[in-house]
Design goal:
The protein is mainly α. It has a domain at 45-75. It contains 3 helices and no strands.
């Protein structure tokens, strides 16, 4: 039950984080200070931190899926 709730929470976080990433026309990350600095040179600190957080949440999401799969296999 706990892994199911964690999977729902991580899924919602992943959706939010992916939507915050900047695409070709900008993104919600511009609201947090990534707009002007990233056009001047390279990616801003906000974009890099957003990338790192997205990777960590993605790995946790994947771990929850694997754990749920193993639990379902053991209980069958």
């Amino acid at each position: 039950m706990g892994f199911s709730i964690a999977l729902i929470v991580f899924s919602l976080l992943m959706m939010m984080l992916v939507l915050m990433h900047k695409g070709k026309g900008g993104g919600l990350s511009d609201m947090f200070g990534g707009g002007m600095q990233s056009s001047v040179g390279g990616s801003s600190v906000a974009e890099r931190n957003l990338d790192r957080i997205t990777i960590v949440v993605g790995l946790l999401w994947f771990a929850c899926i694997v754990a749920l799969g193993l639990l379902m296999k053991l209980h069958s």
